[in-house]
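User: I've been trying to design a sequence by hand for this structure and keep getting stuck. Would you show me what you'd pick, starting by listing the structure so we're on the same page?

Assistant: Good idea, let's start from the same input. This is the structure you sent:
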């Protein structure tokens, strides 16, 4: 799921009056173990850096 969100962020190139580009070099996905429950869970943290063009 995290990779789907990351790929969707790659497709963002403009919003109302602004043009964007994703800085792939500075963006990443981190997989984390969730230890707050007895059920083994994974969480993803997605860090995105956009450049305003």
């Amino acid at each position: 799921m995290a990779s789907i969100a990351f790929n969707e962020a790659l497709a963002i190139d403009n919003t109302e009056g602004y043009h964007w580009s994703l800085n792939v070099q500075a963006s990443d996905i981190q997989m984390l173990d969730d230890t707050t429950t007895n059920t083994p869970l994974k969480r993803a943290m997605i860090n995105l850096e956009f450049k305003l063009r």
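That's my pick for every position. To get oriented when you compare it with your attempt: The longest strand covers residues 28-34. Helices lie at 2-11.
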